[in-house]
Specification:
mainly alpha, about 65% helix, about 0% strand
Length: about 525
């Protein structure tokens, strides 16, 4: 089964959180009777009612707090958590704690939202973990909130699979909780196998979310989660696209909802529609940065949307526009105050290499001087140096591409050897990737390097291109919600172009048809298919 990006992120955060939670001190908390016999919540007397008017996308839920405003902020934060807006969620929970430092659910939410935020937020994580434990052990703590705290403890100490039972119990005990079923579904999802069949957890997650939508068809978080469950399916159905549109309609001010719609449209080959949705997400992100004085380093959502828009423009055949969009993302100054922040990691791993990657992916390879100009310079000191591996992979691939164009097979072979050396070094970087909060980016870099290696071998031995590209084709995955595909084209396209060059027009056309299943309406693939059909007449 394919591991989701969020599960990779959870795994990367486990060790740091377990030590932050107090290590050997958690025994008493974990043996709390609340894990075995939850009962209906009895809330503190005199808890003010929540305001009648809720912001878009927010659903009511009782919680113990002396401040109605803090209650509302926590609910907003819960919705952001379930729609992958972690940094927005953090700021809501943080604001709630300034109003009520004893709000357990605000501490719980701060822990959840900072799970992958890096060491810069270690103090907040540790404080909220300790304070949540203290509040959960108080005799007047509402049982539902204690259950949430215990479920988080299980998640951090035992992993997502063990945590599923804790969340399932919350769902069955507090049936009117609007959020617990969606957190449960998030933990259940296990993707699709190599044949495109959903895993058992995936099927159960769909049943859980469908039940929520049957009861609350306008729930933004549930609509978001339902579309998210199909994010890496072999085919994105029209129903999934419509669900994503409903999520946007439920809260038009949600950048995450617009990004989700962009992803779904990208997967269906509607690149124009995807670009528009990603642009809407970008604008909402910029408005949020301005309104709350947030630096770009803490706004990874903006980077995700603009990077995805650049790739969407490429797939639509708008190569100059794609590079203009990518160059804008790459030109954002690095923030030395936040070297491991979510946005910074996207900058140094993805944004700074994307202009060159897009140029190298074009069917009409531009002049090498242009690609060199778009390539990233040395990374300043103080930033995660493992990300230099991404730039090194791109550099060696670039050398192979231009050496092949110039008819220099020896230079192509040399670039292949150097790329192999870079990948060997990167494969030894797992520990560094964990320390630098970069496990998912490191894995993407290795995936890209493997595909580039196959392409270079096909340049070295064009007569056996099908052999070298078959592994790349088999290992390429559908893009996920959070990031665009690591290369902006299907691997089948490279083999199709090799067939076209060799005069194998039928094979070229067949391979293009296969490529279009992965990237529907991809402009480069459609052009190659057109050439093959014309030449084969």
């Amino acid at each position: 089964m394919n591991a989701s990006f969020r599960h990779v992120l959870l795994a990367a955060a486990m060790a740091g959180f377990c030590s932050a939670a107090g290590g050997g001190e958690h025994g008493y908390w974990m043996s709390s009777p609340s894990l075995n016999g939850w009962r209906e919540a009895v809330f503190r007397a005199g808890v003010p009612a929540q305001p009648a008017v809720l912001p878009p996308g927010v659903e009511p839920m009782m919680m113990g707090s002396s401040s109605p405003a803090a209650q509302m902020l926590v609910l907003e934060g819960m919705t952001h958590l379930l729609t992958f807006g972690d940094m927005r969620a953090f700021r809501k929970f943080d604001a709630a704690l300034r109003l009520d430092p004893d709000c357990l659910m605000a501490h719980w939410g701060r822990c959840m939202s900072l799970m992958g935020a890096g060491p810069a937020f270690q103090d907040q994580r540790v404080h909220s973990m300790k304070r949540m434990k203290e509040l959960a052990l108080r005799p007047d703590c509402p049982e539902q909130e204690r259950a949430y705290a215990d479920a988080l403890a299980v998640l951090l100490m035992n992993g997502p699979v063990k945590a599923q039972e804790a969340w399932k119990t919350i769902c069955s005990t507090w049936k009117r909780d609007p959020y617990a079923p969606l957190f449960y579904a998030m933990l259940l999802r296990d993707g699709f196998d190599g044949q495109g069949n959903p895993g058992e957890g995936q099927k159960e997650a769909v049943r859980v979310v469908d039940a929520v939508l049957k009861e609350r068809p306008g729930s933004q978080a549930a609509l978001f989660m339902r579309a998210l469950l199909e994010e890496v399916a072999p085919v994105i159905s029209p129903e999934t696209v419509e669900t994503a549109r409903k999520a946007v309609a439920a809260n038009p001010f949600s950048a995450s909802a617009h990004h989700l719609l962009g992803h779904c449209l990208f997967r269906t080959g509607d690149y124009e529609g995807a670009c528009a949705a990603f642009k809407d997400s970008e604008n909402l992100c910029l408005a949020w940065e301005k309104a709350e004085n947030v630096p770009p380093a803490l706004d990874d959502a903006w980077f995700r949307s603009i990077l995805y828009r650049a790739v969407s423009e490429f797939c639509a055949g708008h190569y100059r526009q794609a590079n203009a969009v990518a160059a804008r993302a790459a030109s954002v100054p690095l923030d030395k105050k936040h070297p491991l922040a979510p946005g910074t990691l996207l900058q140094i791993w993805e944004a700074r290499t994307l202009p060159a990657r897009l140029m190298l992916g074009r069917p009409d390879l531009p002049a090498q001087a242009l690609v060199l100009k778009a390539s990233p310079g040395p990374l300043p000191k103080g930033f995660p140096d493992l990300s230099n591996g991404m730039a090194a992979v791109v550099t060696q691939y670039m050398g192979a591409c231009y050496s092949a164009r110039q008819g220099r097979p020896g230079a192509v072979a040399s670039a292949f050897d150097k790329l192999s050396g870079v990948l060997r070094l990167l494969m030894d970087g797992a520990d560094a990737a964990r320390r630098q909060m970069s496990v998912s980016y490191w894995a993407r870099c290795l995936q890209m390097g493997s595909l580039y290696s196959s392409e270079i071998r096909s340049l070295m031995f064009p007569g056996s291109a099908s052999v070298w590209m078959s592994e790349a084709i088999g290992s390429q995955r559908f893009s996920s919600l959070l990031l665009p595909p690591v290369v902006p084209y299907p691997a089948e396209w490279k083999l199709a172009r090799a067939y076209l060059k060799a005069g194998k027009y039928r094979e070229c056309a067949d391979m293009c048809e296969q490529a279009l299943k992965r990237f529907p309406n991809h402009a480069g693939v459609l052009d190659t298919l057109k050439q093959a059909r014309a030449a084969g007449k």
